[in-house]
Amino acid sequence: MVQLHDARRRHYDVRLEVDGVLKSWAVPLGPSLDPVVKRLAVFTTDHALEYATYEGVHAEAKYGSGAVIVWDAGVYTNLTRDKQRRLVEPADAIERGHLKFRLRGVKLDGTWAFTRTDRDWLMVKVRDESADPLLDLTATEPRSVLSGLTIDEMAATAT
């Protein structure tokens, strides 16, 4: 699932369930459908599975203040392979610094990869049938897949 979080800086939290927790990356500009674009993805703390459906506004909270919406939701399939073409479990792939996965969400459909660099991670769209350099879903699809609210409308519910 992908949450849009309006904390100190607005960003997208891409969360994948791995071994009973949500492994999380903060992607400031959100997922891109353009395989040429490499998006900064900051690996963050694990979140409880219950957080996958959280929407609301939290003040100084455990996971940061600000409004949160579920921007996209769905399932992922791990596609990570080692040099012998054997499947690598997601936890091991993250430990090794490269996770390739297929998303089947309401908005995002296709294959992406997270790759660790010296200091952070990058999120990159893999060239496939869903790649589209001209489409920016973060601009054209601003609403939550759960509540239908935009991030600004969610923030307004706190006042």
TrEMBL record:
Q: Which organism is it from?
A: Kribbella lupini
Which Pfam families does the record associate with it? LigD_N
Highest taxon of source: Bacteria
- Locate the DNA ligase D 3'-phosphoesterase domain: which residues? 3-116
| InterPro entries, alphabetized | LigD_PE_domain (IPR014144)
Entries under PANTHER family matching the protein: DNA LIGASE D 3'-PHOSPHOESTERASE DOMAIN-CONTAINING PROTEIN, DNA LIGASE D, 3'-PHOSPHOESTERASE DOMAIN
Q: Write out the transmembrane intervals.
A: none
> What protein name applies here?
DNA ligase D 3'-phosphoesterase domain-containing protein
